[in-house]
């Protein structure tokens, strides 16, 4: 059996359910077998070449392919610093650190003499930044909001259910892939799933109890010119643009290169390849801007009908946000095995709440056995070595996950109920709790009707969401 794990070609050919279950059972009782299994996977699969399929590339690989700038030109160096200052002057933040909340802007006045287009064009093309605090590069001329709101108007007027759904899909795709302008930016900012809509209220509610914790978290509203870079081809970004994003994020998030972080957009972590989300080592921390640009670009690209010969379904939502997030990385206390290329398999709870009625309407194991086994063992990519690995690891750890879930779910529900009167939100939400030893962290929220595992809510208790995408045509601070 140990020889089997040492031979990666054999690992790639473990296809039958019975063989996977046999290996999973062995891994439950034989630590040496688990060690050999993981060694074969890491050496033979995780170090594979970068895929030519965009949706199989992770941010670590993308950043590693970038041509990073070596500045020996004082003019270029000065331009980078000036643009970073301009961007910071246009940025608002919300920060939760060890129970203390701060928010607002960085108190940096916009420069009296901003960077000009002429200054940018004076540089060689390979060194030209594709943004400043007020300048941005677009794919098309004109403002996107005119077409986007026209489609939204059609959606609101349409009576035929099939045509209405199709029109809505086109509207949502437009939010993901069209160039940004001030009004489109405000439309995207209305996505209630984005963290700025619920996290500030969550921090206030958590203060009233002592059971749940929240990771230290900084949220920023990304300035429009920087966010526009996610609408361009990531591989076409200049090294100067990437350097600007890196330096901006290092300052905006007050990063420490000696620490580890978890990053995501306001709605999407791309944790299904955990190398996107888990940042460790000085060089990865230094290039967090590139990671976030790539994650956001990749998320928005999911809504394209055709890109790089993709055969994935069209998905919108992961790119509908104007926020980026940097959190402390919670170290695993339990030595859980990992799936998704590095994600510790903590016991997690998805709690469905009705904030209007201060009631819990359902709870699900986040790693639901039927869902996970179907994903790893019965989808079209089930013979991928990644899915074979994760299927076996999940089955080996399933009993522990479900035992912990059963032991703690009633307590989790009761503590959520106790906290709900202090949670100043309306509507129905899913709320994700991660267990780490005896600590329970609330790590995410989303609209209940749009959340996976909503089948755990009893029939008749889940209500559809009433959406409103009409922008408020005024500058607003999400965090005040």
Summarize the structure.
The chain is built from 17 helices and 13 strands. With 480 residues, the chain is an alpha+beta fold.
What does this structure look like?
There is one protein chain. This protein is an alpha+beta fold and 480 residues long. It folds into two domains: 54-328, no CATH class; 337-456. It contains 17 helices and 13 strands. The protein has helices at residues 2-6, 8-11, 17-29, 31-46, 59-65, 74-89, 117-121, 145-157, 161-177, 182-188, 199-206, 224-228, 239-252, 282-286, 288-301, 369-377, 385-419; strands spanning 92-97, 100-105, 212-213, 217-221, 261-265, 278-279, 323-328, 338-339, 343-344, 348-354, 359-365, 428-436, 439-447. The termini are far apart.
Query: What are the low-pLDDT stretches, counting only 5+ consecutive residues below 50?
Result: 4-8, 474-480
Number of domains: 2
Order of helices and strands: HHHHHHEEHHHHHEEHHEEHHEEEEEHHEE
Distance between the termini: 59 Å
Going across the major beta sheet, what is the strand order?
A: 2-1-4-7-5-6
Rg (CA only): 23 Å
The number of helices is 17
